[in-house]
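Sequence, please.
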């Protein structure tokens, strides 16, 4: 009985090896559609996924959507069409480490870096000096507070 850890190791190591080599699951049709309607921009050699849709004619309002933890820009999929009816432009990104964006390891993730990435996206889209509406929840709230600061 004193060698129980050896038995656990002999069983656990092969199971872990199998788990680490399993292929990732297939994306649902909805997620495939979400990804195919988006784009990527590069931030410090890292690929950041985003969606950018034109919407309401006659409006000049832009809204940037900041998702929660541990999800992605897909959080906004159910209200995306409604937002495009209200705003001229609707933009959402997957924060670094989330969704379709890169997930570097090891990496010192921070709220400050996520806010800098949002600013980089706005520069990339030519919106650096335009008035922006922010809609956020959960983790995105903290990033939004940093952006407002």
């Amino acid at each position: 009985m004193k060698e129980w850890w050896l038995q656990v190791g002999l069983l656990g190591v092969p199971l872990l090896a199998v788990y680490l080599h399993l292929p990732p699951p297939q994306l649902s049709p909805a997620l495939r559609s979400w990804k195919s309607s988006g784009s990527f921009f590069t931030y410090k050699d890292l690929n950041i996924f985003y969606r950018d849709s034109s919407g309401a004619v006659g409006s000049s309002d832009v809204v940037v959507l900041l998702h929660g933890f541990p999800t992605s820009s897909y959080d906004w999929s159910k209200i995306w069409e409604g937002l495009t009816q209200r705003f001229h432009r609707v933009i959402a990104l997957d924060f670094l480490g989330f969704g379709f964006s890169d997930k570097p390891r090891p990496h010192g993730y921070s709220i400050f870096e996520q806010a800098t990435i949002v600013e980089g996206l706005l520069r990339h889209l030519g919106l650096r000096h335009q008035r922006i509406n922010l809609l956020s929840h959960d983790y995105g709230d903290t990033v939004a507070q940093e952006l407002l600061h």
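The beta strands are 39-43, 46-54, 62-66, 89-93, 133-136.
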